[in-house]
Design goal:
Distance between the termini: 109 Å
Structural class: mainly alpha
Strand order of the largest sheet: 1-2
Strand content: 5-15%
Number of helices: 13
Order of helices and strands: HHHHHHHHHHHHHEE
Length: 317
């Protein structure tokens, strides 16, 4: 340190000791004061806040205190973001008793990603960085780049010069495709992790879990598997899934009945037989056989209330 600067520092410290004033008191008083002649000093402190905190973090005796303070601040900020995003106004609640097919189709993963990036930017950055640090150590060939590159190499080449020029193109496209797939994977993992945090904060904020639960029900996933996903925070419960299916079934049933009443739909009938075999057949219980008929409602294309007269052809017959 320069000699003159050392002398200045010693003079300032001596003056503060004589007035029983510590550096911490000095900083707190400057930042808390609204007097105009403190404006330049206050501006200097605020502009160099990062530099001051970095120096305190590097110092041996204050390192643990600064680290704990920073962690507490970050935790409070992230908890506030999660609480805000879990509110009903952001439309991330999956109401299983009143869900409709339109609500399932109107929300996409892209919209969910944009909303999370806008409402919880700090939490998004945290979870986005964590998977990215592990994916950087993996080979990009694991994310589908090889298949895309191989598809482009199937065309025949004209001459040897074209062969050498063409061989470089698949490698570039393959690399970009692998990078894109890796980025999409990070985004998907980030959305899943934030969705788990949202459901933990508010059990009604379960949009992604509702999607997965409804999908697993449609794919006939075993109940034991669904229960595992439910306990992991990745799906709604079996009862909630049943309520969602029942709600959408009622909606679709109402639409079908309304369509039939308008006489703007056709019927297709089909006979089918079902044989119910007994697990241990005996003379009294050999199983059963049932013959039934199903009817499929097919809306007539191009028919609406404006041209419904086209169906009234009985007079011509």
């Amino acid at each position: 340190m320069h000699t003159s600067l050392t002398n200045w520092l010693n003079n300032v410290l001596a003056c503060m000791e004589e007035n029983f004033f510590t550096p911490a008191d000095f900083i707190n008083h400057i930042l808390g004061s609204t007097k105009l002649h403190y404006k330049n000093t206050r501006h200097s402190l605020t502009m160099k806040a990062v530099r001051i905190c970095t120096a305190l973090h590097r110092e041996e005796h204050s390192h643990s205190h600064v680290t704990q303070w920073a962690i507490t601040i970050v935790c409070d900020m992230l908890c506030t973001e999660v609480t805000d995003l879990s509110l009903e106004k952001h439309r991330l609640h999956f109401n299983t008793t009143s869900i409709t097919a339109k609500q399932l189709e109107s929300t996409s993963m892209h919209q969910l990603t944009e909303k999370m990036q806008r409402v919880v930017p700090n939490l998004w950055h945290l979870f986005f960085v964590l998977p990215d640090s592990t994916l950087q150590q993996q080979d990009l060939g694991e994310f589908g780049g090889d298949d895309i590159g191989g598809m482009m190499c199937e065309e025949d080449d004209v001459n040897e010069e074209a062969d050498s020029a063409f061989e470089k193109q698949p490698q570039k496209c393959q690399y970009h495709a692998a990078e894109r797939n890796a980025a999409l994977l990070i985004i998907q993992r980030t959305v899943v992790m934030i969705s788990i945090c949202l459901q933990t904060s508010n059990s009604r904020c379960n949009l992604l879990q509702g999607w997965l639960g409804f999908f697993m029900r449609s794919a006939c996933v075993p109940e034991k598997v669904v229960e595992v996903f439910t306990h992991a925070g990745l799906s709604i419960s079996l009862m909630s899934t049943h309520n969602a299916v029942l709600s959408i079934s009622k909606e679709i049933s109402g639409k079908i009945k309304h369509k039939v009443r308008t006489l703007q739909a056709g019927f297709t009938y089909n006979n089918f037989n079902i044989q119910f075999k007994a697990a241990q057949p005996t003379l009294e219980h050999r199983g059963s056989f049932m013959s039934a008929m199903s009817a499929t409602i097919i809306p007539l294309y191009g028919i609406n209330n404006n041209n419904a007269d086209a169906l009234q052809s009985s007079a011509h017959l």
